[in-house]
Specification:
- By secondary structure, this protein is an alpha/beta fold.
- The chain is built from eleven helices and 18 strands.
- Helix 2 runs parallel beside helix 7 and helix 2 crosses helix 10.
Length: about 425
Amino acid sequence: MRFSGWRVLKEGLTGNTGWTPHWRDPEPKPGYDAIIIGGGGHGLSTAYYLAREHGITNVAVLEKGYIGGGNVGRNTTIVRANYVLPGNSEFYSHSLKLWEGLEQDLNYNVMHSQRGLINLFHSDGQRDAAARRGNAMINQGDDAILLDRAGVRRLLPYLDHDNARFPVYGGLYHKRGGTARHDAVAWGYARGADARGVDLIQNCEVTGIDIAGGRVTGVQTTRGPFRAKKVGIVVAGRSSQVAAMAGMRLPVESQVLQAFVPEGLKPVIDHVVTFGMGHFYISQSDKGGLVFGGDIDMYASYAARGNLPTAEHVMEAGLTLMPMIGKARVLRSWGGIVDMTPDGSPIIDRTGTEGLYLNCGWNYGGFKAVPASGHCFAHLMATDRPHGAATGFRLDRFRTGQGIIDEEGTGAQHNLH
């Protein structure tokens, strides 16, 4: 089933009776060429690109809950390519290019909106850092514009520009940045993978990983055992737990990152805006809800819920930046479990077990990385060679100390990334 304006019009005139399910609910096979553990954005995109780019269609995606019920549905939907260090810079540039053609590729509306992203700065030092970042982005082939105070005031008139403590000095404007609909991204990749023969197995929790003679042979699940020649672990905040089934201890710490949405408002925020002094970021959804968040909760947890002190901190930062939202009532909040690495950058690599591959450590960058993560991980699983855009994401960099990508310059501490 393909989507088009004509199809939408036809179904609207005929009672919407011609739509079919987006993907199958197949019975699992006893064995597969490849198994992907994790049915979130990264796992689904990996399965899609395995089928589309490499012709590997005898693939199963195993999801312990339902498709799109994990971190891919628990984020603030921001898409950007404004990284500064080699390793991350080319990867997120690659991801943004995939985002820009994703809807045509999937024949699915993921509501990708390149509304622009503005990182505010509030001191001379932050202005210098923004200029360096902007130059790095341009050198990578992405876009960046350094705005002065007047430029920010023209685009964002609703801010408290002359706040006594954090006056707005300017901003780094990334026009190609924006947002996408997180659920639709999962659904689009699920639909595309299923159409190419991939089995999406929901309510199927992996309970063990079978290894014989140094090679992976399959997995144990709540729906029985499955044989597999290759297995990819793509489970975000649960990476340490699943990797432990294969006898691995990862350099990853899972922490909670909260997000919030108040009542729907008339359109007021046209861009994605980040507050340089409060680690606060905000955009407005198509429904009118303001989607915003801040820091991680600063303690390790597998609970997909947050704590009140961090919620208070996020609200304080938001009101410092834009007091106008102070009367809006928060309707809901949620927590995503983010897998933090010591240098704040991800891992896409083979493991010491033949046929077992690892994709984890996305920190704050998980959603925006979905297309490139799947594209690069599929390449690795299919060819046993790293994709050119992900050569820096080696697992052994934390053992050797070589190739550490300390994007924020805050040192090798999980809770600072």
